Amino acid sequence: MAHYQNLIVAIDPDEEDQAALRRAVYLVRRNGGKIKAFLPIFDFSYEVTSLLSQDERMAMRQSAIDQRVAWIRQLSHYYIESGVNIEIKVVWHKRYHEAVIEEVAEFGHDLLLKAAHQQDRLESVIFTPIDWHLLRKCACAVWMVKDQPWPEQGKALVSVNLASEEDFHDELNHKLVKESLALAGFADSTELHLVSAYPTTSINIAIELPEFDPTVYNNAIRGQYLIAMKALRQQFGIPEERTHVERGLPEDVIPAVAEEIQAGIVVLGTVGRTGLSAAFIGNTAERVIGHLRCDLLAIKPDDTSEHDDHDDED
């Protein structure tokens, strides 16, 4: 987390209260760094006004940009006056998510923060199509922010993959835990928990093999996961009571554990993709994200290009 020094906040054009900007300021005040408050805008009517010359259309476009810059400056003035390093940038672009992704790539931002919306206190966080595009395609870590203050004595739940024998999953597990521990270290004594879901016995196996004992099988699988979790937690000095190995699907287990411990954020890993699969961050991650009621931090491996054919972190 300490290396996140070049933050970009995707400004919500329809909200006076910018939850993502608040969270970014919170992080920078404790961790250092700088913030870019970034907003892509577009008005198709400015492009089709045939009665105006190109220069006049450009002037109208610049006027719209200037108005939005002034609006963001007003929203940010308290932070700026208190010494937080905030750059304000508004661009003219037809596609919001593409503009953000291009900005991240061009200027090397290492953390993108964007507000996620929630229906009410009992419902999951609602992710818009723009959110999904950013989660799937943004080159840096993405923090989706729920509209609430960072909890004092809060908890961070890190989803780790204990099933795979692939080396890159071990590397990603370590990266997730290291960065989450760094976050916990400066974010109001946040408590770190680990979670992993293990599969249940297939009914087909029990039917086709009468001598098959599902209880023995389930216990063996759970034992393997517990051993792997112990090895991981001991490397980082995490107490056993803060680890959770539960039977079931990740999209059920992870949100349930997050709710049980009242986590302020869930941290999970996603594997970058190329070509036809570029629209996906991985089936497991997509299903988990859709059930969360708290902040989400999605982190990619150090080199996603090597792992295009693999699924994401559980």
UniProtKB/TrEMBL annotation:
<dbReference type="InterPro" id="IPR006016">
    <property type="entry name" value="UspA"/>
</dbReference>
<dbReference type="Pfam" id="PF00582">
    <property type="entry name" value="Usp"/>
</dbReference>
<feature type="domain" description="UspA">
    <location>
        <begin position="174"/>
        <end position="300"/>
    </location>
</feature>
<dbReference type="GO" id="GO:0005737">
    <property type="term" value="C:cytoplasm"/>
</dbReference>
<feature type="domain" description="UspA">
    <location>
        <begin position="4"/>
        <end position="146"/>
    </location>
</feature>
<comment type="similarity">
    <text>Belongs to the universal stress protein A family.</text>
</comment>
<protein>
    <recommendedName>
        <fullName>Universal stress protein E</fullName>
    </recommendedName>
</protein>
<comment type="function">
    <text>Required for resistance to DNA-damaging agents.</text>
</comment>
<keyword id="KW-0963">Cytoplasm</keyword>
